[in-house]
Amino acid sequence: MRRTWLAAIAVVAVACGAADAPTPDVPDPADWDAVVERARGQTVNLHMWGGSNEINAFVDDHYGPRLAEEYDITLNRVPLADTADAVATVLSELDADQTVGGAVDLIWINGENFATMDDADALLRGWAPLLPNAELVDWDDPAIAFDAGRPVDGAESPWGSAQFQFVYDADRHDLDELPRSYAELADWIVANPGRFTYPSPPAFHGTRFVKQWFYELSGGPDRWLDGFDEAAYDEASAELWDLLDDLEPYLWREGQTYPNDIADLDRLFANGEVDLTFTQLPAGIDGQIQAGVFPETARPYVFDTGGIGDTHYLAIPVNANAPAAAMVLANLALEPDLQIAKLDPANGWGDGIVIEPDRIDDDARSALQAVEDSLGETAVDQAELAAAQLPETVGAYTDAIDRDWDRFIRQGQPRE
């Protein structure tokens, strides 16, 4: 791994397309004391999706003070409407031969955005397994080692885990009245006109919602995990676009408009305009209930046909201005107390952990167990959630779904 790290640094300027460009002065994470010393006094620009006030507050309140007090690092959280905006910033800088002093130090990333940056050699490689807290991570777990079917290759440090679930209001519906598969959902939408919608792809939750429907119609995820087969995708997805098109008149506002993102959908749900929304939080929705985002009677559930789960990561662009501070933040994010705090819905997030319980000390393990024991009816039973987890596709299928939803559903283009 040491050779991997040194090789990654050596080829940065060439990978950026500018052999004579300045080479980034990136510290070796194997010499952690030097990384910490280099990071002191720096500002780390963390670019992350900013659509959740609760997640934003968690990052500001839990990471910002620790970075300042323990490392003399200033956290600058840069909110994004879409992670692709940060990806575009980095790629534009590299296209202009800006190999040092980039605007982005650390990105909250996974899936197709990681694939885009990986293909462009736009991320530092090899550093993540060398962080001190990386020993708490099971790097042999495919859910960690692969991001949407693509090897992480030390270019991403895991931050948390998530899994798609539906949310309903128990004051409006009994659970046994609600659909438990996409086939049942189609019938339910027709029987309850105007009471359902979803965010328009490429908004993350909208894409994932549509992709899971694609899974169900095409017989499951297995055939979509190993590489892009465009002919197979076109054939399998045709039924999906026909069905979504047919259902549009029964959606909220007759499908003439869609929520921009999950925050918009959550507001429609809280206002009683639709009956279902989504969450990705393994520990449940108590944080959103306490924050007033959801009513007190909101409850999550999973389809019998499952929900996609995955890991999300932190990554450092090759031209980051403060790579040392970025490494310190990525390492801090793996601290057991902060992983457990992030899991606890009482702190406003409820995100899954990525460290192994058998690799933390007894006090931390007890704290973790206490949080898990505290999860009540505002969380899906953890065993049920694990049993329902579906894998993520390779990124090319995500891109194709986003493209074709825009063509066939938003624009209403004819299908051959």
Provide an overview of this structure:
By secondary structure, the protein is of the alpha/beta class. It folds into 2 domains: 2-159 and 310-378, 3-Layer(aba) Sandwich (D-Maltodextrin-Binding Protein, domain 2); 163-309 and 387-410, 3-Layer(aba) Sandwich (D-Maltodextrin-Binding Protein, domain 2). The protein has 17 helices and 11 strands. It has helices at 2-10, 12-15, 32-39, 53-71, 83-95, 111-119, 142-145, 182-191, 204-217, 230-247, 262-270, 286-290, 323-332, 336-343, 362-374, 382-387, 395-410; strands spanning 43-49, 74-80, 106-109, 146-147, 150-151, 156-163, 165-169, 277-279, 298-301, 307-315, 389-390. Strands 1, 2, 3, 6, 10 and 11 form a 6-stranded mixed β-sheet that branches. The protein has a 3-stranded antiparallel β-sheet with strand order 8-7-9. Helix 4 (53-71) links the parallel strand 1 and strand 2 (74-80). Helix 6 (111-119) crosses helix 17 (395-410) and helix 10 (230-247) packs parallel to helix 17. The longest helix has 19 residues, at 53-71. It is globular, with a radius of gyration of 22 Å. The mean pLDDT is 93.
